[in-house]
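ok so i was messing around last nite and threw this chain in just to see what happens. nothing serious, just curious
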Amino acid sequence: MKKKKKMNRRQFVKTSLTTAGVAFTAASVGPFVATSFSKAKEINIGYLKATHHAGLFVALEQGFYKDQGLKVKPVLFAGSGDIGAGIVSGALQVGYMGSSPSIGMVCRDVPMSIVSGSAMESSAIVVPYNRPSNIKGVQDLRGKRIGPIRAATADIVVRYKMLKGGIDPFKDATVRNFSHVQDILTGLEKGDLDCAILWEPWATHAEALKYAKPAFFSGDIWPRHPCCRVAYNNSWSAQNNDLATKVMIGQVRGFMHIKTHYDDNIKANAKWCGIPEEEVNIVFKEKRQRLTLDLDPEGSQEFAVATKALGIIEKAKFQKDGLNPKWQKQALSKLGLKKLPAEL
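result:
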């Protein structure tokens, strides 16, 4: 078997941020004027290079939007916060985004609703690949130097569970907030960090390239915690109920296809995330992340409480229709289903 050549940090980040096949940037979406919601020929869908968005990737590859007459434009972003901003501004009609920004935003009275789940758990706490570590769980983080992407989903999960376990992340550990994965990798390599937090498939990809290895997973410390969600711009969905329902049908069909066509899921995620199929296979085979369409109101509420406890949002109360199951219900009815497909 051919030995993998270790990427440098620039190559790693380029892989993690550039799209497979269809390249768009945030700027390429462009703003919409007020009348564009009813006249737009394309449906702009914001996404990340994350296996959390498997339902979208499979739906795109299998033509589940196209066969309904939809013209969708996937738009790649580097972070969920920018996707949320795109939805609120109207530049995006739909977005796949992390639970931290999505839940935080629908507690702030913005023109956006979370309309479906996409994934749960889905992140890893990693330690340097070639350096000994005694980190096995949250209790081992006291006194450690931790590198998260600030306010990312797993950052909330880890720091909240530290608080609940009697470890003040502001006083009993050194949390260095980062904006870019390459800086986290640098910190791990140089010995400036004891551990870091990466979402999938990038935790697995970092392990394959021998930058870092998982110490434990976010699901180990908060089972079933909400991760990526699907969100709609409220004005667009209100004016285009049929289109919004069809987009949801594509999501549900993509999810159902994953359950019965494992290899298609691996290929789609490898293509859209830009990493080898064997790495994607590890993510799903070892259940390093889970997929779910469930809006999970109780888990979402707890996540809002966690986000508030860390001082990131001011209130942990959802706005009206912040979690809106309307289009899931309509999609299930159109598909002749009585309930959401089982979690994967």
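not much to say yet. The chain is about 40% helix and 15% strand.
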